[in-house]
Write a structure and sequence with these properties.
Family: Belongs to the inositol monophosphatase superfamily. CysQ family.
Radius of gyration: 17 Å
Helix content: 25-40%
Main location: membrane
Order of helices and strands: HEEHEHEHEEEEEEHEHEHEEH
Strand content: 25-35%
Distance between the termini: 44 Å
CATH architecture of the largest domain: 2-Layer Sandwich
InterPro entries: CysQ, CysQ/Inositol_MonoPase, Inositol_monoP_metal-BS, Inositol_monophosphatase-like
Structural class: alpha+beta
EC number: 3.1.3.7
Keywords: Cell membrane, Hydrolase, Magnesium, Membrane, Metal-binding
Bound molecules: adenosine-3'-5'-diphosphate, magnesium ion
Number of helices: 8
Shape: globular
CATH topology of the largest domain: Fructose-1,6-Bisphosphatase, Chain A, domain 1
């Protein structure tokens, strides 16, 4: 993959982020999808912009977005390479006006991501990563920097968890670990904090879909971390079900994260 494609995809994510901002921070009208999850005009604007831009950039690579039809979701099984897009991850946080939402674009090849771009519209920060090429962050007005996960210090862990969908087992862990500091955050930002060495562990036992994790998993893996199911297998893509299993995301693979989660 050439660097020009990587830069172009980062620019698509930034443009999509700019398209969400006029809808942010005011009274935003919310529709409910078939599964009762929220949908705003910002999700739709970002989806339309990304679809159009990726189709122009790589006409031969199909695109699957959270806002694609169910027919397209089912049709993806025959694709070997495709763009996997969450045009606005953290819609609940977007509606609250918290700024903890992201634009996510992954390139899936076979069963895993080979490029991931996560953009944070409110701060203008963009993360990207490719296996073997490393992970990077670009902050507005600054040159891109390489990012790496950090070794976990079990006495001073930083644990990140969903603000809206943590669930009882993760909440119990956060209460039990008095030596850890915790941050609850919306969206794929949680993976990015681990990728840049500011947090150690993100346990996720509540449902997510492949588009919620593909781009950020790629950034985290390229930064030295991993995302596994509870049996320790890498989270994979283009599964029969678009839903992911419960997973553990971490920067350092040495600690027994499942034992920590289960209080063993
Ligand atoms: N019941 C459910 N089934 C599938 N995915 C769910 C879900 N509840 C939440 N999610 C996913 O969790 C994401 C939010 O995660 P978090 O709480 O970490 O911000 C949502 O992303 P969207 O905001 O893109 O819909 C949604 O895709
Ligand atoms: Mg999402």
């Amino acid at each position: 993959m050439d660097e020009a494609l990587v830069s172009a995809v980062c620019e698509v994510a930034r443009e999509a982020g700019r398209a969400t901002l006029p809808f942010h921070g005011g009274a935003v009208s919310v529709e409910r999808k078939g599964d009762d999850s929220p949908l705003t005009a910002a999700d739709k604007a970002s989806h339309a912009l990304i679809l159009d831009a990726l189709r122009r950039l790589t006409p031969d690579i199909p695109v699957l977005s959270e806002e694609s039809s169910e027919k397209e979701v089912a049709g993806r099984r025959s694709w070997s390479t495709f763009w996997l897009v969450d045009p606005l991850d953290g819609t609940k946080e977007f509606i609250k006006g918290s700024g903890e939402f992201t634009v996510n674009i992954a390139l899936i090849s076979g069963s895993g991501p080979v490029l991931g771009v996560v953009h944070v519209p409110v701060t203008g920060v963009t993360y990207w990563g490719r296996p073997g090429a490393g992970a990077f962050v670009a902050r507005p007005g600054q040159a891109p920097e390489a990012i790496r996960t950090r070794p976990a210090n079990l006495e001073r862990l930083v644990i990140v968890a969903s603000k809206d969908h943590a669930g009882p087992q993760v909440e119990a862990l956060l209460k039990r670990l008095t030596t850890a500091s915790t941050a609850t955050l919306g969206s794929s930002l949680k993976f990015c904090l681990i990728a840049e060495g500011k947090a150690d562990f993100y346990p996720r036992l509540q449902p997510t879909c492949e588009w919620d994790t593909g781009a950020a998993q790629c950034v985290l893996e390229a930064a030295g971390g991993a995302v596994t199911d509870l049996a320790g297998h890498r989270l994979v893509y283009n599964k029969e079900q678009i839903l992911n299993p419960s997973f553990l995301a971490f920067g350092d693979s040495r600690p027994d994260w499942l034992a920590l989660l289960e209080g063993r």
